[in-house]
Each structure stands twice: as structure tokens, then as C-alpha cells.
Known about the structure:
Elements: H1 9-47, H2 49-52, E1 57-64, H3 67-70, E2 81-83, H4 87-97, E3 105-107, E4 111-115, E5 121-128, E6 133-140, H5 143-152, H6 157-185, H7 192-210
Antiparallel strand pairs: 1-6, 2-3, 3-4, 4-5, 5-6
Helix pairs in contact: 1-5, 1-6
Organism: Sphingobium tyrosinilyticum
Pfam families: PepSY_TM_like_2
Protein name: PepSY-associated TM helix domain-containing protein
Amino acid sequence: MHAPVRVQPKKKKKAFWLKQLHSWHWISSAISLIGLLLFAFTGITLNHAADVEGSPQTVEKSATLPAALRTQVAPDNAPDSKKPLPAPIAAWVEKEIGARVAGEAEWSADEIYLALPRPGGDGWVSIDRQSGQLTSESTSRGWISYLNDLHKGRNTGAAWKWFIDIFAAACFLFAMTGLLLLQLHAAKRRSTWPLVGAGFIIPTILILLFIH
Length: 212
């Protein structure tokens, strides 16, 4: 009968860390996969924004506030201020222009003005406090611009900012576990560190020589 093979502590420890690193590497890669594809694609479109973005399309709309709501925007002697639209007026405006109305509007003596920026476009709403006349304008720059703004986190709101932070943490974990796996396998792959070094040296040279 053969005696049981005893695994050396050093090899056992290495096997443990290999298993852990592989687990965290594939988990972080799965979490960040779609985000990486999106940000890689938009990295290209942002680099060639002048060539790929379409022509802006602008839509203008107008309407008149119902008499029952007009008293809530009637002129007064209050100083200029910033505050949200009253809920009933906001609901009516959303129905008329087909867009979500949020944020603080600028209230002056004659007008209420609300900017409506969004990914891939811009917009605004103006209400004449005397006549109740509503005017709105919405501009769309196309889906490429929309994706580019997602990349930059432009006018995307708190939820998307949280996503970017979590996605960045997953990418960091993916890269660090990949680096540690490279270190563990480097002895059998001689090209490992030259390739890692090239990934650092090439952009450094480009920055020093061509970016001023």
C-alpha cells in the first residue's frame, strides 16, 4: 500500500490563492463585461465625435396653461428665485411636452425658465407668467451622442453615477486580480513582464513626445 502523498504547505497555499484569484477574476469580469464593451466602444466614438455624431434634431412645442393652474404662476413682487415647478404644473407640462420635468426652475418677474439637459440632447421650458403661454424646445443629437454622454456621465443623474463607481471598482478588481495571476504564472511565460512593461511604456512615450 502506498503512503498518502503529502502536499507541501507552500504549494497548498499557492493553490488556494490561485483558486481565489481565478474566482474573483471571473466574477469581476462578468460584472464589468457589458460596461467594458460600452466604454470601449464609446472611447472610439468620443475620439471621433466630429465624424460619427449626427445632425441635431430640434422639436418645438407650445401650449397655454389651463385657467385653474394659471394662478400658481401669476406675477408677484417676490424677488427672482430658483425653485421647482408646483406639482400640478409639472404634471401638466410633462403631459404637454412628453418629457420628464425635474429640477429647479428660474422664476423671474415675467417668466419661469427650466433647463432640461439630458444625455444625447438638451431642452428647456419657458412659461410666461402673465399669459400662461408655455414654449418648449427639445434637441436630440442621436444615439451615438447619447452613448457618449453616458460615458462621460453627463446629465445622467445619481443612479448612473453610482453605476459608474461600482463599475470602476469591478474593473479595478478585474485588473488587479489579472496582475496577480500574471505574477503567479510569469515563471512559465517569459513574455509576461515585457508585455506588461510595453503597456506602460508605450502610452508614456506618446504622452511625453506628442501631447503638449
